[in-house]
Design a protein that fits this description.
Layout lengths: L2 H29 L3 H19 L13 H21 L3 H15 L5 H24 L7 H31 L1 H5 L13 H11 L6 E8 L2 H8 L1 H18 L5 E5 L3 E7 L3 H16 L7 H6 L5 E8 L6 H17 L5 E3 L8 H13 L3
Parallel strand pairs: 4-5
Antiparallel strand pairs: 1-3, 1-4, 2-3
Helix pairs in contact: 1-2, 1-6, 2-3, 3-4, 3-5, 4-5, 4-6, 9-10, 10-11, 13-14
């Protein structure tokens, strides 16, 4: 689900809940005529109206970049539903309402958001359970309990319907991954087009992820010395090494003629560095006994790796890939056969980087 659509959908849920609340508290007033009944019927409606009019301040998932803003948004949404729980004494039906925001947040498929909403929902439930022991505004009768139950159930069914539509859409998109045009024939990996799309999708999520790009050192020399078929074999060997070392959630891509890119979701740069180093060392230990010329020289074939971590939601995919590529070239210029993690101080090297990249693109890396 695109984020703008998600915000619109969540806004519809809040509007529906507000309409139900107006009906509910009108019934509350009819059953509890008097000043106290009027206060307890009007107060939640006013609070919800204020939250509804200010919804743009917290229904802004497109713009959330830090944890503080995320917690504020999720707490505001949960409070919108929690108001009913504070006013009504029956904990069972209102607890159904409280899980509506959590259920809706799962549509984002953002682990960080889901985790934070679980904590916030649990905190609300504890507070409401305790307050219901000491503070009971009115006794909710069968009709009001039924209304509360229906309020939650209708919204949950809406979310299930949305989730089903999205799942079907994703299933339809499975052709994207099966489409041979998205695969590299020789390596079987996804191609560079799929790589750009994957990175762009990852930048929309809160969870951090890493990219590393691998390039075989002196690959032109390898092909010229041992032959093009041997060069293809070495590239496939590198792909097999990446598959063997990487985790099930990691995805490999053939990025360019000689580069292999790997996207590692929910991974810090330290974790990614360990995986990249394991790939580098494992590949460097490979022998090629079937090639007589290589057996004669036994020249080690090594790789250089550039790595970058992204923990900033909304980053530009193209810039991330370029910085990762810059870290790769840094490895090349500083001795090859090593892994370099991108840091901001490399900006000082940027002018040299362009000349260096052009040189290696035209000749060899």
């Amino acid at each position: 689900m695109k984020e703008s659509n998600f915000n619109i959908f969540f806004g519809k849920l809040l509007t529906l809940n507000l309409i139900f609340s107006v009906i509910l508290y009108t019934i509350v007033f009819l059953f509890h005529i008097g000043v106290l009944g009027f206060i307890f019927a009007l107060l939640p409606v006013v609070c919800k109206l204020l939250l509804w009019f200010w919804r743009e301040s917290y229904l802004n998932f497109d713009e959330i970049t830090d944890k503080g803003k995320l917690i504020f948004s999720l707490t505001s949404i949960t409070l919108f539903y929690g108001i009913d729980a504070f006013i009504c004494s029956n904990f069972i039906p209102v607890s159904i309402l409280l899980i509506v925001p959590l259920f809706a947040i799962t549509l984002k498929k953002d682990i960080e958001m889901i985790k934070q909403e679980c904590i916030i929902t649990f905190a609300f439930m504890v507070i409401i359970l305790i307050s219901s022991i000491f503070f009971v505004p009115f006794k909710a009768n069968i009709l009001l309990n039924l209304m509360l139950f229906v309020m939650g159930l209708v919204q949950i069914f809406m979310i299930i319907k949305r989730y089903t539509e999205e799942t079907l859409s994703i299933s339809a998109k499975s052709d994207f991954f099966m489409d041979k045009s998205k695969r590299d024939d020789m390596t079987g990996l996804y191609n560079s087009g799929a790589f750009y799309e994957e990175v762009e999708e990852r930048t929309k999520l809160m969870a951090p992820f890493c990219i590393f790009i691998i390039n075989i050192d002196n690959f032109k020399f390898v092909k010229d010395t041992y032959g093009q078929p041997f060069g293809d074999y070495v590239l496939r060997t590198l792909v097999n090494t990446v598959k063997k070392v990487s985790r099930s959630q990691d995805t490999g891509f053939r990025y360019g003629r000689e580069d292999i890119a790997v996207v590692l979701p929910k991974t810090t740069d330290d974790e990614a560095f360990r995986i990249a180093e394991k790939v580098r060392k494992s590949f460097c230990e490979t022998t090629y006994e079937h090639n007589a010329e290589w057996v004669r020289t036994k020249r080690p074939i090594t790789v250089s790796i550039g790595l970058i971590e992204n923990n900033q939601r909304g980053a530009i995919a193209q810039e991330l890939i370029e910085k990762c590529d810059q870290a790769l070239y840094y490895s090349k210029q500083h001795g090859k056969n090593q892994t370099t993690t991108y840091h901001e101080h490399m900006m000082e090297w940027e002018d040299k980087f362009e000349d260096f990249r052009r040189k290696y693109r035209n000749y060899e890396r």
